[in-house]
Amino acid sequence: MTRIKFALCFATFTLILLDALIVKDPPYGQLKITGKYLTKLDGTPVQLRGISLFRTNTVRGHLFFANSTANIVKCYWNANVIRAPLGIDLPGNASANASLPGYLTSPEENYQRLKIIVESAIENGIYVIIDWHAFHMYTDQAVAFFTNISIAYGGYPHIIYETYNEPDSADTWEQLKSYHINVINAIRANDPDNVVVVGTPRADLDVEIAARDPINMTNIAYSLHYYTNEDPPLKMNKTNEAINMGLPIFVTESGVCNSHGNGTVNVNVTQACCIGILFFMTNHRIRMTTNMDNEKQVMAVKWIKTACARMVA
Ligand SMILES: *[C@@H]1O[C@H](CO)[C@@H](O)[C@H](O)[C@H]1NC(C)=O
Ligand SMILES: *[C@@H]1O[C@H](CO)[C@@H](O)[C@H](O)[C@H]1NC(C)=O
Ligand SMILES: *[C@@H]1O[C@H](CO)[C@@H](O)[C@H](O)[C@H]1NC(C)=O
Ligand SMILES: *[C@@H]1O[C@H](CO)[C@@H](O)[C@H](O)[C@H]1NC(C)=O
Ligand SMILES: *[C@@H]1O[C@H](CO)[C@@H](O)[C@H](O)[C@H]1NC(C)=O
Ligand SMILES: *[C@@H]1O[C@H](CO)[C@@H](O)[C@H](O)[C@H]1NC(C)=O
Ligand SMILES: *[C@@H]1O[C@H](CO)[C@@H](O)[C@H](O)[C@H]1NC(C)=O
Ligand SMILES: *[C@@H]1O[C@H](CO)[C@@H](O)[C@H](O)[C@H]1NC(C)=O
C-alpha cells in the first residue's frame, strides 16, 4: 500500500516536472540564417560549438542519452549546442553486437532517449540539434516524425532540425532536395522559423553540388561532415567552392580519426589538422559539433576543447 502510494506520488511528481519544463534561454536567442551565416535575429553571426552524441541505437551510444549529459557538455566542455542523433537504421557495416534496434523498428524506445536530451538541453539553455540519423531515405517516416517533434518542441528557440544525417551515395541532389522540401514543409506547418540543416550528397561531402542549386526557403543550412583522416584537401576545396557561392554550411559532425571511430589519432597530426580545421571553421564562422562515439574521439575532443578556448576566445 505504502509502496503503491509512493510510486503514484513519484509518477505524478515526474509528470509535473516534465510538463513544466524549466526553460533557460539559449545564448544567442532565436537563430536564423542570414546570407551564408548563422546569426542572431539582428543579423550578428554566431558560432555554435558542441558535441554530437553517438546515435540512440548503439550499445555504447545510448548510455549518453541521460539527464546529466546536456549539463556536462555545457558546463565542463564549454559547449553551446548538443546534437541528439535519433538512430533510424544501421550503416551498412555496423556490427550487429554493437547495435540496438533503431527508430524504424523500435520508435518509442529511441524517441524517449532523444526526448531526454532535447528537454535537458532546453532546461540548460543550450541549442539542440534533433538529428534524423538515417543512412537511407525514408520520406514518409521522416515527415511523420518531424511533424510530431515540431508540434512538441517547435516553440522553443533552442531547436535546430537536421533532416537526414548522411545521405546514401545513391541519392542524387534532385532526390534529396525534394525529400528535404517535404520534411521542411512538415516542420514549417508547426514551426515557422527554427533553423533546418539538410544533408548533402554522398554523406555530407558534396556541398558544392547543393550550392549550385540551393533550396529556395528561409533558415536552411547545409551539412558537411568533417573527419580529418578522410580526404581533407578535397573537403576543403568543396567547402571553399560552396562558401564562395554563398552556401550556409553547418558541420554537424567532425572528428580527428576516421568516421568509423577507428584509425590512428596521432597527437601531432591531430594538432595540425585541428588547428587547420578550427581556423578554417572559425574564419568562415562554420558551426561545428563533434562526434563523441568512442574513447579516442573523447580524448581528441578534450584536446579540441582547449584549442577552441584558446583560439575562439
Ligand atoms: C530523468 O529524469 C526523470 C525525472 O526526474 C526521470 O524520471 C528519468 O528516469 C531520468 N532519466 C534518466 C535516463 O536518467
Ligand atoms: C563500410 O562503410 C564505408 C563507409 O560508408 C564503406 O566505404 C565501406 O565500403 C563499407 N564496408 C562494407 C563491408 O560494407
Ligand atoms: C562484437 O563481437 C566480436 C566477436 O565476439 C568482438 O570481437 C567485438 O569486440 C564485439 N564488438 C563490440 C563493440 O562489442
Ligand atoms: C510523438 O510525440 C509523442 C510526444 O509528444 C511521443 O510520445 C511519441 O513517441 C511520438 N511518436 C513518434 C512516432 O515519434
Ligand atoms: C524563390 O522563391 C521566391 C518566393 O517564393 C520567388 O519569388 C523566387 O523567384 C524564387 N527564386 C528561385 C531562384 O527559384
Ligand atoms: C584542391 O584545389 C587545389 C587548387 O585549386 C588543387 O590544386 C587541388 O588539386 C585540389 N585538391 C583536391 C583533392 O581536389
Ligand atoms: C575503419 O573501419 C572501416 C569500417 O569497418 C574500414 O572500412 C576501414 O578500413 C577502417 N580503417 C582503418 C584505418 O582501420
Ligand atoms: C610530435 O611532435 C614533437 C614536438 O614537435 C616531436 O618531438 C615528436 O617527435 C613528434 N612525434 C611524432 C610521432 O611525430
How is the biggest beta sheet arranged? 8 strands, parallel, barrel
CATH topology: the name is TIM Barrel
Helix and strand content put the structural class at alpha/beta
Kindly provide the radius of gyration, computed on alpha-carbon positions and rounded to a whole number of angstroms.
19 Å
* CA distance, first residue to last residue: 57 Å
Ligands = 2-acetamido-2-deoxy-beta-D-glucopyranose
CATH class: Alpha Beta
**Helix-strand pattern:** HEEEHEHEHEHEHHEHEHEH
> Within the largest sheet, what's the order of strands?
3-4-5-6-7-8-9-10
Shape: globular
Strand content: 15-25%
- Total helical segments: 10
Set out the fold topology.
Elements: H1 2-19, E1 31-34, E2 37-40, E3 49-53, H2 69-75, E4 81-87, H3 107-124, E5 127-133, H4 139-153, E6 159-162, H5 173-188, E7 196-198, H6 201-204, H7 207-212, E8 220-227, H8 232-244, E9 249-255, H9 267-283, E10 287-292, H10 295-312
Parallel strand pairs: 3-4, 3-10, 4-5, 5-6, 6-7, 7-8, 8-9, 9-10
Antiparallel strand pairs: 1-2
Helix pairs in contact: 2-3, 4-5, 9-10
One 2-acetamido-2-deoxy-beta-D-glucopyranose is lined by residues 93, 258, 260, 262-263.
GO molecular function, one term: methyltransferase activity
Family: Belongs to the glycosyl hydrolase 5 (cellulase A) family.
Protein name: Glycoside hydrolase family 5 domain-containing protein
Account of the protein in words:
The protein has 313 residues and is an alpha/beta fold. It has a single domain (40-312), classed as TIM Barrel. The protein has 10 helices and 10 strands. The strands form 2 sheets. An 8-stranded parallel β-barrel has the order 3-4-5-6-7-8-9-10, surrounded by 5 helices. The protein has a two-stranded antiparallel sheet with strand order 1-2. The chain is globular. The N and C termini lie far apart (57 Å). Keywords: Glycosidase, Hydrolase, Signal. This is Glycoside hydrolase family 5 domain-containing protein. Residues 42-283 form the Glycoside hydrolase family domain. Belongs to the glycosyl hydrolase 5 (cellulase A) family.
